[in-house]
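name: query_chain
kind: protein
chains: 1
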Amino acid sequence: MVFSGRPLSTVAVCLAALLVIRSSCAAPLDAAVITEVDSYQGLLDVAGTVDDTDTGKRFEREVMMLLYEGGKCTADFKKHGLDEYGRLQPEDVALVAADVNKVDQVFLEKFGIVDDGDDMPCPTAVVIRQRSPLQNPTFEVVGSDPDDPFAIADGVLKSQEVHIGSVNDYDFPIKVMFVWRDGKERPHLRRLEPGRESWMKTYRSTELVARALDDGRELQRMRVRWHGLFTVAHRNCNIENCGIVERKEVELDEEEIRAREQNEKFRVRNNVQQPVGLPRFTDVGFKKIRVPDDVWDMLVTYYRQNKQNPKIERWGKGNVYTNNLEAPSYMVNLPETGPLKPAIFNGLRPILEEWSGVELVSTSCYGIRAYTRGSWLANHVDTRATHTISAIINVDQEVNKDWPLNIFDHAGNDHNITMAPRDMVLYESATCVHGRPSTFDGQFYANMFIHYKPTDPSKWIQER
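structure:
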């Protein structure tokens, strides 16, 4: 037997996207629950299904599945080290066994299993990602060496790699330790300075512990479940209420006042001068559409499972683009490494290329910014070297009054565009002046920004 199904695409890898929590996960079970299935519907019954992002039904849990042929081998999860995952993460992982000689035709078709007359490596380990679509499940064959049990164990461990960004929001250095299954703490980051962020690869079910560097006192701990942020902070708030917790009045010193005066002169001058002579790629300069299913599901799932772990956004001295000192903004950053960011870039690029009529290369997509009550965003044009064709996606909002995007088209006419979650505004961000100059009336307004530039430099003017 052979697998002739679809390979696991980059986008598919990210459909799990992606969960990290502050507190430890549910207590491990005494024994892992392993379920034998003989149909695709039986598999769905075990894994569970969700349709919570309006993008079609998807797997609620990840599935670790051993496929075997009865009489030739058994589905021994303990031998291959897979039972540990069921014990440590029962809320995230379902352990499933299936005899390929007994499952129904739908099961065989979904996984592209074809009887070619040869024996299937017995057993074969398959991982179906959490939030994989039911109609066309995405899966990965992670190991199938019957003579080497470690081959399957190593393949499954590889499938559990995640990317975690440790953030120090304290005003003193910290260190981050990791705790593996033996219960011992080991160095993860030996020193993380105040305000800094560092991304590293680790594995699901690992526990992270943040300690003060000077005296080793514990500040915070977290059980890793998916990609995301480990924000070490004194505050106990999330995207929905951090603005209330952190809001404050600020007095500016002379240095800050002078820096703001200089930057404000540049902003006003740049809004007039930069668009002159730069090429236009569309007639109007902007367009509002909806985010496609796969990109939306991975983005909103990542946001939902990381919004309790935001980091405060630190702007440079003399910032005149937002009133961040009075109304701070918060970030749910995307992993700097791993598959999520490339999947978002690749999922949206064809849409922006079709709209702009030019081949594009990705330049910037740093995360989801949440504005808080009282915020404003001054009108501006983006960096011309990298932010040529861009998109704004509204991920989430809680508003008392619409907070429109104010944007000027290529003819100089201004427009106010209201957005709802999943709305996406395509815009030529280096030539169309844009912002949200009105004061935000609401709890939070979470947007993601993604930027591209033409692949061919001759179609654009590079920053000198």
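note: The chain has three domains: 2-159, 163-234, 244-459.
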